[in-house]
Amino acid sequence: MALTKKQRAELRMKFGGRCAYCGCELGEKWHADHVEAVRRNISNGYAMDRPENDTVSNMVPACIPCNLFKMSSTVEDFRSRISTQVDVTRRASRSYRTAESFGLIQPTNAPVVFWFEQFQGE
Fold first, then answer.
1. pTM of the full predicted structure?
2. For residue 61, what are the domain limits?
3. Residue 8 pLDDT level (bands cut at 50, 70, 90)
4. Does 21 score more than 80 pLDDT?
5. Contact 17, 25 (CB under 8 A)
6. 49-54 LR contacts (CB < 8 Å, sep 24+)
7. At 106, which helix (H) or strand (E)?
8. Are 64 and 24 in contact (CB under 8 A)?
9. Half-sphere exposure at residue 29, Cβ-oriented, CA atoms within 13 angstroms
């Protein structure tokens, strides 16, 4: 669904002009993310597999990196994928392991809490 300018402006301010996931301030370019994915089927000309999810009430404002990383994951799957990133980076990056061994990086094992879970609208 194509959002009107008014719908897009309202959606952008849903969480104070911030990404629903990481909480960064949204700039000029941001995505309207479907919380419950519509999933586009490449073999069917990018038609939606779940068109019933293509509603404004199922959308949140998201920064481009969060939306691209989330892909068609559920919120809980997205949370789980984020929580694995320290270990993924540690395995893949010698630079990370070096910085960690010198105390420059200290993983906390903190739970992943999204901005929309913390945001208190006025």
1. 0.88
2. 5-108+114-118
3. very high
4. yes
5. yes
6. 54/1
7. none
8. no
9. 4
| Average of per-residue pLDDT values in the chain | 93
Read off the pLDDT of residues 38-51 as tens digits, 9 standing for 90 and up. Answer: 877 777 677 778 88
Helix (H, G, I), strand (E, B) or coil at 24: coil
Closest CA to 35 of 7, 65, 14, 56: 56
- Structural domains of the chain, count: 1
Average pLDDT for residues 8-34, to the nearest whole number?
Answer: 97
- For the chain, how long is the longest CA-to-CA vector? 51
Q: Name which of 35, 39, 51 is nearest 1 in CA terms.
A: 51
Measured in degrees and rounded to the nearest 5, phi and psi for residue 57 equal: -65, -15
Q: Which residue type occupies 106?
A: Q
